[in-house]
Amino acid sequence: MKKGQIYEGLVEKVVFPNKGIIRVDDGRTVVVKNVVPGQKISFSVTKVRKGRGEGRLLEILEKSPMELEHVPCEHFGICGGCTFLNLAYEKQLELKEQQVRELLEPVCAPYEQEYGLAPFEERFEGIRRSPGQFEYRNKMEFSFGDSYKDGPLSLGMHKRGSFHDIVTVSGCKIADKDFSDILLAALSWFQNCENPMGETGSEKGIPYYHKMRHTGYLRHLLVRKAAKTGEILVDLVTTTQMEQAAEQKVLEGFCTALLNLELKGKIVGILNTHNDSLADAVINQGTRILSGVDYFYEELLGLRFRISPFSFFQTNSLGAEVLYDTARTYIADAGTGKVVYDLYSGTGTIAQILAPVAKKVIGVEIVEEAVGAARENARLNGLNNCEFLAGDVLKVLDEIEEKPDFIVLDPPREGIHPKALERIIHYGVEQMVYISCKPTSLARDLEVLQAKGYMAERICCVDMFPATANIETCVLLGRK
Description:
Layout: E1 6-15, E2 19-23, E3 29-33, E4 40-49, E5 52-62, H1 89-108, H2 112-115, H3 120-123, E6 124-128, E7 139-146, E8 153-158, E9 166-167, H4 177-192, E10 218-225, E11 231-238, H5 244-259, E12 266-274, E13 287-292, E14 296-300, E15 303-307, H6 317-331, E16 339-343, H7 349-354, E17 360-365, H8 368-380, E18 386-390, H9 393-396, E19 406-409, H10 418-426, E20 431-436, H11 439-451, E21 454-462, E22 472-479
Parallel strand pairs: 3-5, 6-21, 11-12, 16-17, 16-19, 17-18, 19-20
Antiparallel strand pairs: 1-2, 1-4, 2-3, 4-5, 7-8, 7-10, 8-9, 10-11, 12-13, 14-15, 20-22, 21-22
Helix pairs in contact: 1-11, 4-5
């Protein structure tokens, strides 16, 4: 097996998140992404290391028996957003549950005899579904670019496997029609308005930011919409390369185009964020209000949350209720009348759900804007026993005088820093809840936690991201 060789093979299984396993003629395996079990595919070998290969999908030669006859989205396979939209939702759930089980059982099962634990199958509670399979996203981050080199302006998602090409996802099925209408209105305005920059050779159309030349104006369009209140916040991310007077005229027209739309929800704020960094990411280097306000409100489990453009908030509001209800069930009476640490607390959602039964909840979050939002949300909900601290968990823990009786962990995708994990274990609390958005990171951290005596007592998956390869996992840990 050599780099550049082309093979055909059957996808035996798919491991988290979307890595298909194919066995070639000599018995060695190749990993190919963006496939489903049972497909016969052709692929090109891109890397060979220690007898194991990686490949790039070339063509699906035969569909899997698992696949739908008709995929419900016209952009599937072109857009890089969805992975499993070609499977019925029950099949998606089965696949994700199997992936998490195969990751966590080898980590959790070896301790059963030593600690008298129930078998893994009894502790693993399967997967809870999202209340909605379609139109569930409350946030979309669209990119400006072109659909092919030197083509017309596009706005949407990156094409699968491409760093540059953009597909205009006007028919996206995981976000509702308001997102598509806003996308198309913004694209039409910037394609047709007068160009004051004069760098595209055309009198019409505003140029997008070219990643290689580092010139241009348009970068991203961030749209957030609350599932319960219907409030919409739109943030146009641009460079500072346009002259101020000309920019004001362009942005006024942009606001008018959006505010004239007939939407199911209501636009409460239109913002402009400047970003001159070289990174292809939404980075806030200054945000101003063009219309309305710079926040919107969402409701979860009877609580009200004020959300700013860059605050972390689960992208599936109704799914978040399922996730946090699961966590609340796991915590049950363990946090009653006690000091609870909510580490990696974001906008303080979990902290405020626990606050009514806790003596005090202390949230720690590195994003200062999210901490400010958490404090405001606690005030809105009449919760005076919540304290939110800004900073890195590893450093902030040294500054907190009150010791925890219970700890909730909801870290970012990469999991918990090893030194922070040591500090957390050192508190010696009887129980913890770990909420993870990446089961491979969870499996790694569980190895450390279990070696120190914290056993997984209950495990449940929650599908927050239908059609994609991502999954949330909630684990109740008890000290043995």
